[in-house]
Amino acid sequence: MSAAVTAILYAPGTNCHEETAAALERAGGRSELVLLHDLVEGSKRLDRYQALIIPGGFAYGDHLGAGRVFATMLVAELRGQLTDFLEADKPLLGICNGFQVLTEAGLLPGRMPGCRGMALLENESAHFEDRMVRIVVSEDTSPWTAGLSGRILAMPSAHAEGRPLIEPGLAAGGARVAFRYCDAQGSPTDRYPNNPSGSPGAVAGIADNTGCVLGLMPHPERAALAVHESQDGLELFRNLVRWLA
Amino acid sequence: MPIHSIFALSHDDAEARSWLGFLRRHGYLALSALVIERVFWLEGAVDVEALLPLLANPLYQTTARQSMLDAVRGPVVEIAYRPAVTDPETPSILAAARALGQKLEFARLSRRYQFVGLDAAEARQAAARFLYNPAVERVREPEEAWISLRPSGEPDPVRSVTLVGLSDDDLAALSRERSWYAPLPQMKVIQAHEIERGRPHSDAEIEILAQSWSDHCYHTTWKSLGLLKQLSAATAAINHPLVVSSFEDNAGGMEFYDGWVITIKGETHNFPSSIAPFGGISTKHGGVIRDTLGFGKGAYPIGGTTVMGTMDPRLADENVPAGALHPRLIVSESIRGTSYYVNPMGIPMLHPVYRIHPGYAKCFALGHSIGLIPKRYALKETPQPGDLALVIGGETGRDGIHGATASSASMTGETLAKESAAVQIGHPITERNFATAIPVLRDAGLIRSITDLGAGGISSAAGEMGAEIGVDLDLDRVPLKDRSLTGWEILLSESQERMLIAVAPQNLARAESILDRYEVAHAVIGQFTGSNRFEASWRGAKIVDLEMGFLWGACPIEPTAISEPKRVAEPLALPEPASREEWLRAIHGVLRHYHCADQSAAGSRFDSTVQGRTVIGPYGGRNHRMPTNIAVSAPLRGKPYGVVTTLAFNPFYGEIDPAAMARMMVIEAITKAVVAGVDYREMVLCDNFYTPRMRPETAWDLKQMVEAIAKFSAEIGVPFISGKDSSSGTFESDGRRIDVPSTLAVMAMGRVPDVSRIVTKEFKRAGNRLVLLGRAEGDGLGGSVYADLRGKRGDCLFDGYDAPGIRVLWDMLLRLQREDRYLSGSAIAEGGVLLRLFEAGSGSGLGARIDLGGSILRPHLGDDIVRPRTDELLFGEFIGSVLIEVPPEPAFAAAGVPHLVLGEVTSEQEFTVIHHGAEIVRESWTNLEASWSETFREVLG
How many CB atoms within 10 Å of residue B561? Predict the structure, then answer.
């Protein structure tokens, strides 16, 4: 059991925080569910935590855009704490809606709070897609994906806005594609439904230039327990625990 | 205060593309492009530039201070909420603006749709049909200017209504005209009450009485037929050790493991879903989920279903009854509604089921909710005098007024227009929020009692919670999203996402601080009194003062006449397919049938794995399209314990024999779970009836069904613990009456100590034998999909098991499963053995070779039984019997249970039927999958 505590940050409309905590616990990590309200009110501070996960859901009803209001709150109310957190190179993971929050907040791809470099648009099908998907790990310089390069991970994917629109400057900023939707052989695919959102280049997840900040659309926490169809998602949480140890 | 406007256009608008396709599919072929421009109206001294990042993302949206739509391209229709109504997004915008340091006073949104290719009239018509709900939204005219964005409007005063001196005809007419839908005997009781107490009722009082006495809330039909207590009496007689709560609370509760209770509830929302499917379906889910949140002292929802019965979506427009929506629209909008509501709630979809029947002009819209709660909180207390009535969640608006009374009335072509205000608008984010907060309140011991505000709104919730002691409400303290609501409208509004909690005064402060932390709105709207009266005041005047005894005791229950209907049913005389072509046509036809086809195109729009508890979801197999017919969840993280649910719903059988259908639905639901390895002794049931308006014949059928399952559940020892009934399944238009078929959907819920022991449907190994275990003779084709393809029903059903007979089969299955004697299994239902063979084969990538009369055929049917025809064997719906996959050695034996070795699992991905040595069918899964997948692609466009 690691002593380091990971904050699992949730807001009104977040709905994957409990299973995310359960997945991290199975990997041997310690977590604390942190309500955005408590950070804004000042009763809790980000620097108390060694890592941060923003889980999935529909924060603030996804009003005005998926993750938009949550991201606005983060940047407007917690810019200082966020910057300190990033500068300390602490691991930060956004899953599904959490990934949308990171992009709306500018933390991905450019780790620049308030400066958006990519967006996650409505799926090509224009509706919610609930699928078991395979993603291939395309880089492992991130603490989250260390040693997983080339691995095919099976896990559920469930979202309506997951089609990345990426500024050309992305590569220049040093951010990298971390996961791609793939077929059974591990070849990245544009074919629906293996690529459920119609994501160009089959992009399923992005890491920033340090690798510490990672966002992905599929749900590793739903492929992490003994009762789950796949336990591949556990690898990401195990990596976090190793990194924090 | 200044009002700014920001217009935003998206460069990449999948939603606009999707609406374009939708509108073209629904007849607007001239529409060549659709553009959606979003408008933000902002009131206050704000720096608009500072707000832009919140309102739009420059990566894919362009903003301007005036519209960017080029007027010459096509007509523009702007949709906005009514001036008296608050936008759902407004609170989020105000909160985010505050965070950005902007003093925004108020905000509104509107959407400008530009219809390229349509003329102005067509554009308005399309918008009115599909793009807004007149109960809360409107078309905003271009010349209109805002004075203020804040909700405005003046309510009508409360009026007193005197019934004294009115003739029976006048009373009946008044009841209709005011949408009370109170039958004459009820009107006369209210009239007599007015004389007795010597003063006229307020309109609010009559509204409360009409709503409380509606069939929807008071179950007058069931009471008059003496049915209401039958199922609960059977349950009491069974006295099942695992039943914690049955028919008392908003849901039923069954003992789980480690001090936890699992709950079950099914609720229909047929009327609103028929006139406004999107709103009706989304609030169907919202309502049944609140039944879980309102169980005991607040259970947490861990699963749900959506079950739809409609007319055939492929119906030609001219065959849709006047005044009814096209079933294609009902189905596609219902899918959108389920996705819109259930996904943000974060509740996994367990069973998405779509069925058709020509009688569903008024559709069948059922949803279930499964919940989890610590046993110590499973029973609520009665409020004490002095306890506070705390309403939490959304504000009260004009939406959903008269839902309870209107839904109890039969539906006519005119209802569509007249009662559109009876359809609620759902905002899942609000419900999601208190779903998070309620367990926190509960575990802090702050909830004395809790219930949802559903049909009948505050009136119903406060009236029922205070029935034993009395309640006094101050309606001026009810938070409103619509300023123009008058007193009785505040009481009856069925605005969604509200719960009523009884809180002891000393606990109020703690409760409020928890709710504030979770950003759940709340208001104390009254107090429980001990006066045994329902009292309410508004704007300084007492507008309601009724004795609870009168409200809950005076409703006249009229006897319902009963007479046995004459059924016009012909015996089936179906020719058996004679050639390879005819066999293939029959097999492809069954797989293409709406009830058997691949429905994953609809079901995969609902989250099935959120909460991380899903073991088996709606679809499985190698390509995750094979229907599993069972849902397995492991609700206690880190524990192997499982909640298992199954569903049975067949609209065809009820036409032939309602009582037999009802029994067969119970058998089908339980067998689907038993074949997976769930002990029927650790199962409970939930019933949802849907029948036509009561006439002597329909009353007969309803009585037959209820009595049949009450008796049967007692005999098999599996109790019903929750259920709901609707007896308003009649649609009238052009002097034509369309009745729904006698409908009963049964859900079984069981528990298993170890989910890893569950046996799944898909084949496991080539060379294994395929055995049909159970009876496989008699009228398996009655009411079958196979008969339906030929436009036939038949005159009798399989109905092959009595209680002792089916228990022998279940016990055998459980023994075989304990001894690992079968590797895959599935219960026979619509589509017969054929559908199960196809699903298990295509879901596994293995094939099936059926030999009927060849070497591996070993009939063990018992002496009295003749082997059925080959098409009966393949397509017969032998409800209760199962298909299992057993090892080739040792030879399969199941003493005392008829069984038939059908053939074997092969490694070729194809389906083969050998008949007396001759191959009559050989077809690849690929070809069969093409037919199987085609139907829902066609339905969903």
Answer: 12
Show residues of chain A in contact with B603, CB under 8 Å.
130
Task: Number of helices (H) and strands (E) in chain B: give both, helices first.
Answer: 30, 40
Structure tokens at B593: 């049938």
Q: What is the pLDDT of residues A116-147, one digit of tens each?
A: 999 999 999 999 999 999 999 997 789 999 99
Degrees (nearest 5) of the Cα angle B652, B653, B654? Answer: 95
Instruction: Respond yes or no on whether the N-terminal peptide bond of residue B890 is cis (omega within 30° of 0).
Output: yes
Percentage of residues in chain B with pLDDT exceeding 90?
Answer: 75
Task: Name chain B contacts of A123, Cβ cutoff 8 Å.
Answer: 14
- The chain-wide mean pLDDT, for chain B, equals 92
Q: Which amino acid would we find at residue B478?
A: V
pLDDT digits (tens, 9 = 90+) for B778-795: 789 999 999 999 999 999
A172 Cα to chain B: minimum distance (Å): 17
Residues of chain B contacting residue A127, judged by C-beta atoms under 8 Å apart:
18, 336, 339, 605
pLDDT the model gives residue B153: 73
Helix ranges restricted to H, B352-420: 403-408, 415-418
Adjacent-strand bridge partners of B644: B632, B750
Average pLDDT over residues B877-881: 97
Q: Judged by CB atoms within 8 Å, which residues 500-519 of B form the interface with A? A: 517-519
The single-letter code of the amino acid at A143 is P
B432 contacts A158? CB cut-off 8 A: no
The interface residues of chain B toward chain A in range 89-118, judged by CB-CB distance below 8 A, are 89, 92-93, 95-96, 99-101
3-state SS record for chain A: CCCCEEEEEECCCECCHHHHHHHHHHCCCEEEEEEHHHHHHCCCCHHHCCEEEECCECHHHHCCCCCHHHHHHHHHHHHHHHHHHHHCCCCEEEECHHHHHHHHHCCCCCCCCCCCCEEEEECCCCCCEEEEEEEEECCCCCCCCCCCCCCEEEEEEEECEEEEEECCCHHHHCCEEEEEEECCCCCECCCCCCCCCCCHHHEEEEECCCCCEEEECCCHHHCCCCCCCCCCCHHHHHHHHHHHC
Q: Tell whether B613 lies on the interface with A, counting CB pairs under 8 A.
A: yes
Nearest to A19 among B60, B89, B612 (CB): B612
DSSP one-letter string for B633-697? E--STT---EEEEEEE--TTHHHH-HHHHHHHHHHHHHHHHHTTT--GGGEEEEEEEE-PSP-HH
DSSP state of B421: G
Cβ–Cβ gap A61/B101 under 8 Å: no
- CA B360 centroid distance within chain: 15
Touching B: A residues 185-214, CB under 8 Å: 193
Q: What is the pLDDT of residues B136-183, one digit of tens each?
A: 788 999 888 888 887 777 888 888 999 999 999 999 999 988 888 899
Q: Which of residues 20-49 of A touch B (CB under 8 A)?
A: 22-23, 26, 35, 37-38, 40
Provide DSSP, B179-219.
T----HHHHHHHHHHHHHHTSPEEHHHHHHHHHHTSHHHH-
Is some CB atom of chain B closer than 8 A to the CB atom of A69? yes
- Tell me if residue B165 falls in helix, strand or coil: coil
At B417 the three-state DSSP class reads helix
In this predicted structure, what is the pLDDT of residue B779? Answer: 84
Measure the CA–CA gap between A209 and A92, rounded to whole angstroms. 13
> Is-catalytic flag, A96?
yes
Between helix B48-55 and helix A68-87 the angle, nearest 10°, is 90
Q: Phi and psi for B223 in degrees, rounded to 5?
A: -65, -45
Among the partner residues B12, B349, B433, nearest to A121 by beta-carbon distance: B12
